[in-house]
């Protein structure tokens, strides 16, 4: 089976005089419907990797970067910006750290937003997701009227409403208290599994991810070498994946 995501020899670097950083992904595959936590300390490049996987930031180099059967590396090399925007809108869902809900829309409209952008309205799915996530009674409210945990549930529903193939969550529990963090992580995993979506969660807390049932991929970090560049390496070989 072709993996949903397949990266080989992918790099992205921030140069400049102050604390240059390079992210290296020699090998990384993720199958359809798979869940994985990306663990690493602050500044290790988790957000940088998620931004690339969200097709929101280009790699500096890529021998291979494919997503959903599409050659992402080729799109970035030129002429594929519309295709990237279309893939982002239709096939990818994002759960931000603090929910990222729009204050002037109702919870229901917030959840439906990804459907509107993808051109696939489906009010029944919005209500069904809200039901599963325990926020059905909150749909008419504005985000400011929800608890922090309810907001994260709404953000999970929004990330799944348009039936994406991949959900990306960058520290989705950073703003919630520890007990609730376990619940949110477990819910995210359960909902993605139900929807058949692959899931990548960036976290600095691998133990919490393990408790919530995620396999964990830790990055290798290297202090600045002779060239002054700090490096982080994320490797996920297909062999290790099968083990
Ligand atoms: N736009 C940028 N320009 C220059 N350097 C950047 C930029 N964005 C991130 N960096 C640097 O790249 C490195 C990786 O940052 P990144 O945000 O990807 O790490 P992270 O693992 O997500 O951190 P955290 O857990 O604190 O969110 C850091 O050293 C950071 O300072």
From TrEMBL:
<feature type="domain" description="ABC transporter">
    <location>
        <begin position="5"/>
        <end position="243"/>
    </location>
</feature>
<dbReference type="Pfam" id="PF00005">
    <property type="entry name" value="ABC_tran"/>
</dbReference>
<keyword id="KW-0067">ATP-binding</keyword>
<dbReference type="InterPro" id="IPR017871">
    <property type="entry name" value="ABC_transporter-like_CS"/>
</dbReference>
<comment type="similarity">
    <text>Belongs to the ABC transporter superfamily.</text>
</comment>
<keyword id="KW-0547">Nucleotide-binding</keyword>
<dbReference type="InterPro" id="IPR003593">
    <property type="entry name" value="AAA+_ATPase"/>
</dbReference>
<protein>
    <submittedName>
        <fullName>ABC transporter ATP-binding protein</fullName>
    </submittedName>
</protein>
<dbReference type="InterPro" id="IPR003439">
    <property type="entry name" value="ABC_transporter-like_ATP-bd"/>
</dbReference>
<dbReference type="InterPro" id="IPR015854">
    <property type="entry name" value="ABC_transpr_LolD-like"/>
</dbReference>
<dbReference type="GO" id="GO:0005524">
    <property type="term" value="F:ATP binding"/>
</dbReference>
<dbReference type="InterPro" id="IPR027417">
    <property type="entry name" value="P-loop_NTPase"/>
</dbReference>
């Amino acid at each position: 089976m072709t993996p949903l995501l397949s990266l080989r020899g992918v790099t992205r670097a921030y140069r400049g005089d102050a604390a240059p950083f390079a992210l290296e992904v020699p090998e990384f595959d993720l199958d359809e419907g798979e869940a994985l936590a990306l663990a690493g300390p602050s500044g290790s490049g988790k957000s940088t990797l998620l931004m690339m996987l969200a097709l929101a930031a280009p790699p500096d180099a890529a021998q291979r970067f494919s997503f959903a059967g599409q050659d992402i590396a080729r799109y970035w090399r030129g002429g594929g910006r519309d295709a990237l925007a279309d893939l982002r809108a239709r096939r990818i869902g994002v759960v931000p750290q603090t929910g990222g809900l729009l204050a002037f829309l109702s919870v229901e409209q917030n959840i439906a937003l990804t459907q509107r952008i993808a051109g696939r309205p489906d009010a029944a799915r919005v209500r069904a997701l809200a039901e599963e996530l325990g926020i059905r009674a909150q749909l008419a409210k504005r985000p400011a009227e929800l608890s922090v945990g309810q907001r994260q549930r709404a953000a999970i529903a929004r990330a799944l409403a348009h039936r994406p193939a991949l959900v990306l969550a960058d520290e989705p529990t950073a703003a919630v208290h520890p007990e609730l963090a376990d619940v949110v992580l477990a819910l995210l995993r359960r909902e993605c599994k139900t929807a058949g979506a692959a899931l990548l969660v960036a976290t600095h807390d691998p133990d919490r991810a393990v408790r919530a049932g995620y396999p964990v991929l830790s990055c290798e970090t290297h202090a600045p070498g002779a060239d002054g560049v700090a490096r982080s390496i994320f490797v996920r070989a297909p062999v290790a994946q099968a083990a």
